[in-house]
Amino acid sequence: MAAVDASSVGAGVGVAAIALSVSLQMIARKGGGGGGKGHGKEHGGGGGKLGKVWAVMENPVLHIVLWITGGVGMVGTGMGAWVNSVVTWANTEVSGLLTPWVGLGLAWLVSLALIVMLIKDIRGNRAGPRTLGLAATSPFAVVAIPGSVGAGLATAITFVSSLVGGVVGWAFGLR
User: Cβ(35)–Cβ(43) under 8 Å?
Assistant: First the structure.
């Protein structure tokens, strides 16, 4: 089984990454906390000199990466232990149902489905609640995927979260 290097992002940095994502979405949608349509191009704004800045605040990939970083930060916490137990339980239940039919253990099937759904949402340029939830749980899901696919996904998540965690930690003085 693969392993995500949880030491790359601390719990404080993980929480800060998720809070940053939520804050950026609120600013882009509400125009800085006031009423109105907001500044991002999806919310009727986007004009003027700051149009590109508002568009970046709404970029789905940015929010997905921040939530993945938050998920890695959760790994060593009580919440992380709970999420891990839920993902492990789901994989075990599906394996128990399918093993008598196919003759081999498929304990990683739920985890693979979660990752495939996340990749599909990234390719579709979406970052709704389901996508952000999948992003936050992806560090827990990839460790159940066997072989080089799981190792590659774990390495990618560790690399991205280390990079983003370093930037978020530096920005908030958490490192």
Answer: no
Q: What's the longest Cα–Cα distance across the chain?
A: 62
Instruction: Report yes or no on 31 lying in a domain.
Output: yes
CB atoms within 10 A of CB 142: 27
Total domains in the chain come to 1
Decide if 1 is inside a domain: no
With tokens 């239940």, the residue in question is: 93
Domain presence at residue 35: yes
Q: What is the pLDDT of residues 133-158, one digit of tens each?
A: 999 999 888 888 888 888 888 888 88
Question: Are the C-beta atoms of 28 and 57 separated by less than 8 Å?
Answer: yes
Domain limits for position 26: 6-172
DSSP structure class, residue 40 = S
